[in-house]
Specification:
Blueprint (H helix, E strand, L loop, with lengths): L8 E6 H10 L1 E2 L2 H6 L2 E2 L6 H8 L6 E6 L8 E4 L17 E4 L3 E2 L3 E6 H5 L4
Antiparallel strand pairs: 1-4, 2-7, 3-6, 4-8, 5-6
Amino acid sequence: MTFSPDNAVFHICSRQAIADARVRGSYHAESLAQEGFIHLSRAHQVVPTAQAYYAGVPDLVVLVIDPTQLTVPLRYEPPAPLPSSTPKPASSELYPHCYGPIDLAAIVDVLDLAEFVGIAP
């Protein structure tokens, strides 16, 4: 399978985190060490994820990831719980999780989150 924007998966992170990844040669989220995987989203899941987990956080970007370039497993699984005590509505929707560091070759673009979701930070 070749890359198509329709196949892309996305990850929200700080601008500094992607700068650090460029120095290191791969992207490592804190969740990789804590939970064993990196939380990703499909295109339609980016806005709800940003609203639920990153409201008010400045200087965020969205990594556009080509799943065909990942060298580690990508699995679609139930979402993580919301950071508040508000229960997440029951849903059968699955989210992509990357089980290892993301090679820079798999990151095909870095977009400003505010531009991606069409909202002001």
